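User: Structure please.
Assistant: Input sequence and predicted structure:
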Amino acid sequence: MKTNDIILQTVTKIVSFIILMFALHIFFAGHNNPGGGFVGGLLTSGAIVLLLLAYDIKTVANSLPIDFKITVAVGLLFAVGTGLGSFLFDVPFLTHAFGELTIPILGGLHLNTAVLFDIGVYLAVVGSTMTIIQTIGEGE
């Protein structure tokens, strides 16, 4: 029988939000500083695991109706797709393109295809980590 731990659940809501915001920061800072898709994905998985500890698998699955196996597949498509996209421009594998774009409200925006690769890595890490955790947790 699971006890109703209101303190753990309340703190988990706050802490998981903070972890997710830090994961987002690490994801976007990863191009110039340590971080990126891998570390951001691990932090996001950590926040979801914290939710799994405070609640049960069914509650988290109802809150996050995500099939993490599909998340892995989409992440791999993004990561491999950005690498294969370099062949369209006759450059070596995983050569990334970048450019500047001016948007009236936002101003100057620096675009980089490495972000698409990092999104793929992020999704693959979150998907594979959560698939492993859920597989272990469902054994009970």
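The mean pLDDT is 88.
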